[in-house]
# Entry
Amino acid sequence: MFRGPKRRLDEPYIAFIGGTETYGKFIDRPYSALLEKELGQTCVNLGCVNGGVDAFVNDPTIMATCNKANLTVVQIMGANFLSNRFYSVHPRRNDRFLRASTVLQAIYNDVDFSDFTFTRAMLGKLHLLSPERFDIVVTELREAWVARMRNMLGQIGPNAVLFWFGRKGMSDDAWDKAANPLQADPLFITAAMIDEQRPLVRDVVQTVPTDVAKQQGTKGMYFAPMQAKAASEMLGVSCHAEASMRLAPILKRLL
# Structure
């Protein structure tokens, strides 16, 4: 199930795939909806809450929809949201941890993996126990992400645009040097990893919301009182407005 309203696919359209930001949780008009008005072309929002590459690459219907689009904007999603040699995630809700492989259990034989429901919590525990062993996990996740992205972009075809939408910009800085490093999004993704994908796409676009936009917080968002904390951690209405303004002239040029 995707965010409505339902769109016709028998006329020209732009497809958007990505995680919670693309879906626009708590947002009345996420950046894809703003772009539809700006570009005057149907924009199909295929975003998935807590989705990673796995939510899309293994779905032939989504891949066919993207392949037929005039353009497909692919939000860059974290490497923690995909199954790999060390652990498996839920095929749709990619933030959900399912099971650890025997390899990971051997590396972390002091961990009871049945305690975990979410991948980020599990990774946080592994890092806390042993940063040295955790480097092996990060290397595996990055390699899996690069390979899975190459697969997905191959299925989408030549008319894809990669879109970085996060609080911090792309870099090759050590991931664990920032404050609260495991809360970063997209997690573990470096500029070098994205450079490997450039030959497969039309362009790479980066939007880092301004301080002014981020300071708007949850203004204009819709959520129940119990969801206030979750909403405060999202990129808000002003951030989506800046994303659409950044993407609009580039997509116009590529259409």
